[in-house]
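haha ok so turns out i had the wrong file open the whole time. this is the CORRECT one, sorry everyone. sequence first:
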Amino acid sequence: MGHVPDQLTEADAESARERRLVAMHLQEIESNPLDAEDIAMFEMFERERWSHERRIAHIIERATMARFTDAAE
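then structure:
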């Protein structure tokens, strides 16, 4: 399968997955583990091989939406 623009290569996606697993372990050590929704989001990024730029944009959008949702309550 060829490389799709805005998508990581399989090797880059695997490298990102390995870094996520290390980061998750460090978060657990600090008593701040990721919740199931966050883990599912990062697994989706890896499965779909989203670029880092697309991942960042998605996370910023989620944080912005959450801020507005929290403010409305």
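DSSP finds three helices and no strands in the chain.
again sry for the mixup
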